[in-house]
Write a structure and sequence with these properties.
This is N-(5'-phosphoribosyl)anthranilate isomerase. It comes from Roseivirga pacifica. The chain is of the alpha/beta class. It has a single domain, classed as TIM Barrel (Alpha-Beta Barrel), CATH 3.20.20.70. It contains five helices and ten strands. Strand 9 and strand 10 form a beta hairpin.
Length: 207
């Protein structure tokens, strides 16, 4: 199982985390997020990333031209769309050759997976996160059994409240098309600053 660590922005913290070789590292380009990168991101550091760690830009209803400019500036490998982006919006990114992770927020009630169908031709992964007050980073899980209704046709990332205490519950998802887990707030010392030792423990746990 692959690992994505999201909400990074501090240069030294990024360097320390890179030593653990997470498969993906996420950077949030959304002003309302407490983990928004703002002007903190070191462009040269991101441009020097090893191929072992893919860079993911996280966006919420970002204008297309602005998103494209950010992708070019940091040479992002993926964009993760956390807003209400339309199929047409995602299709334009696909046409540009930009790899897309489309996020859907899931509660504990039945989820209508049919809404994913029009996106399937344009995305590399879906990401299922917990429906909450914020668009991500809420630190709470949803009932993963809801995912049994998903047809598994597109691989997905799982997010929302994953930590060292509940990692064993991932066994419930055996047989599903789970590509990676995505962690954020449960592994932080403060918003945007990760506890590298806890991430190291997590990596060992899922190896």
């Amino acid at each position: 199982m692959k690992l994505k660590v999201c909400g990074m922005r501090d240069s030294q913290n990024i360097r320390e985390l890179l030593k653990l070789q997470p498969d993906y590292m996420g950077f949030i380009f959304f002003e309302k997020s407490p983990r928004n990168v703002g002007n903190d991101l070191d462009v040269q550091l991101l441009l020097s990333f090893p191929e072992t760690t893919q860079k993911v830009g996280v966006f919420v209803n970002e204008p297309l031209d602005s998103l494209r400019a950010i992708v070019r500036k940091y040479k992002l490998d993926y964009v993760q769309l956390h807003g209400d982006e339309s199929v047409e919006y995602v299709g334009e990114l696909y046409a540009d050759g930009i790899k897309v992770i489309k996020v859907f927020s899931v509660g504990n009630e039945a989820f209508d997976f049919s809404q994913l169908k029009p996106y399937k031709s344009f995305v590399d992964f879906f990401l299922f996160d917990t429906k909450g007050k914020e668009r991500g980073g809420n630190g709470i899980t949803f009932d993963w059994k809801v995912l049994e209704a998903y047809d598994q046709s597109v691989p997905f990332l799982l997010s929302g409240g994953i930590d060292l205490e509940n990692i064993e519950k991932l066994d419930e998802l055996k047989g599903m098309n789970l590509h990676a887990i995505d962690v954020n707030s449960k592994f932080e010392l403060e918003p945007g600053l990760k506890d590298v030792e806890r991430v190291r423990e997590l990596k060992k746990a899922i190896a």
